[in-house]
What does this fold into?
Amino acid sequence: MTEPSGETAPEAVAPAEDLGEAPEAPASDDRPDAAEEPGTGGDPDAREQSGAAEGAGSGEGSGSAGEVRADDGPGSGEESGSGDESGSAEQTAAGDEAGSAGEAGTEAGGVEGAAAELSDAQTELAAQRELRARIEARKAEKSGPVAGGAKLSGTAADLLAAVRAVEGGTASGSTFYEAPEPAPRRPAAETAPPMTVRPPAPQQPAAPAPGTTAAVREVLAQGGAPEALAGQVAAALGEGAAAALREDPWQLLAVSGVRPEQADGFARALLGPACGPGDPRRAVALTAWLLERAALQGHTALEIQAVRAGLAGHAVPDPEQAVETAVSEGAVLAFQEEETAEEPEEETSEEQEQAQAPAAPVLIGLDRYALAEESLADGLARLVRTAKADAWEGSELERATGAHGLVLHTGGEASRAEPPALAAAARERGLRTLVAVHADGGRRSAGAEAVTVAALLSGAAGPGRDEDGAFALDLLVVLDAPQLDVETGAMLVESLPDGCRLVLSGDPEVLGAPGAGRVFADVLAARVCPRIASRVPDPGPLGELVSGIGVGELNQVEAPGKEIVIVPVRDAGEAVHRTVQLVADSVPRAIGVPSEQTQVVTVGHGGSAGTRALNAALKQRLNPGPGRFGGYDSGDRVAYAPAPGRTVAGTVLGADAEGLRLRCGEEEVLVPKERVESVLRHGWALTAHQAAGTRWPAVVVVLPGDAAGGLSRPWVYTAFGRAERHLSVVHGVDQALPRAVAEDVAPERTTRLRPLLEGLLAADEE
It folds into this structure.
């Protein structure tokens, strides 16, 4: 969606909309016969991740709210076209899931906004890497030689000492028989839980030394780059940042938001005639930059041809040599998975040779994602091999979990009750069990003892870790597993002890993880463990509608209780007006769901009907105020992003000298005032990725005309599936909606987890 420079606001006085005669969901026969591609297509929220480098404008949408006629409401029974579309279907995104703080153009302010977000991301990544280093050290210690009996304790240690005493002649063998019988063990129910040690909260990375920052600022000034980037450059490049930047100006691309043309201008200012498009330093930096951009779209690696094409698009004269240089210098890694096909017993004919599958493509990736995927594959294989098979009675899911260390569970929203039931049954068997979910909103259907994955990994919730860094668990059940990115998945699996069982549960039709990788889909495709598909259908008209979307059909659904309402609009301005009217008046009056329990979901952050424009209009109507707390007032709904790719819904309580105070679920959160701009956005309207993992009693999905190119089947499935009781669709994309459901699947992500798992576990399955 485009983001024009005007400002959209709802009309001051608008007649209340009546939902009493609302039409039903669009019929499937409205789909055109022609297989026309809808604009740019693809996963819109994956493009949101790439906004950190390209940015979306800061202006709000233009156009005024249209006049509402008596016959123009939702009772008209027809879906109108998008009439006057405001802007083209450009790919619009934001660098973090709560929105982008600036435009990564040539303006210094835009680059500063993107750079401010890097500090939060670096903090989170530094904490994860520190924990992974401790786990790797523990693994290395275990793999080394262990002195006999060095780690024994209690009765086992006493027995070993007695044996050595007899061997040395200092005690008689009768000692073994004269020892008193051990006291009987107490029942398991009376046994005290094992003591766990919670790791300290990860410390913030040390700020660069003032001298380092000052030296970097001097180099930036010489190259004509914004001096405000000095702190971020110093943090990214370390103590010798100034010398490194002077030697290789293209290392400026390591700062989030800096584009190649900006780095080229900086390099020309520093190097003069010695600078050229074929400079090896430029080739290496651009290769890493392309892979970082790909990671924002979910890829953990790229095919070598795609990398070469990207370099050619940035005027690199010899892309093939550039990739080889980047690999030889260790900036990136090259992979080619081995083929597992059996060798033929006799020579094949020419036709058979032509029919053979082509060799696996060469992939290029960054070491952080390569190590995460390899660690995740090793950890999953370890769980499969070390779990002790047991015969459990009960449901199909319980029987599979008892017999295997890794189990996959798939199904819609109604199936979410099955994994918590499994956890309850496991607790009755005396197993240490925990249920983890993606978002705080998902805990409501997972039980009171459920925790979020983020809280579990940080140590804020859950059983904590033992002295070896492993969770004191026998079974971990993870809901919303499609939202696991590869780094989070690796951290989670590395933290599970040998013999622990892992159940990954989720709906494979929803949008994938906001970060790099597709853990759940890759493990499903690898076919290395049991896969239990739920047979429980989603109930009611909403369940019927969403289930049809999952198989590519936008069916006409009867909704006698106004569960589904279609609100046709002509342009983006009318879409904003109707959305505000629905949330503030129509849904509370006709459906009985208050405004604070109604969530708006739209395609992107920018544009005339994106989250920014909608949140501005909704705030003006629902909680007007001057924004005296850094743009926020008490009572504002907000989207808080404590870490990249994670969004928490909350409400502003107030502010003090320390920062802004929020109510997020049952917890009170303090956001330091220096972080408010980078991690907080208004939250009446969210993107589908931000809304994944949470459901609301009522949802209003906004589809303005310029959103047609951002629609896909997973996006529609995810957005429509957020509603529990009522769904309103503000519809301005005409036939693009049924066409997207029928034809547009999310673009595939290039990952390595599937072949790694197949190589480790496929032989075991045989």
User: Anything to note?
Assistant: The two ends are 50 Å apart (CA to CA).
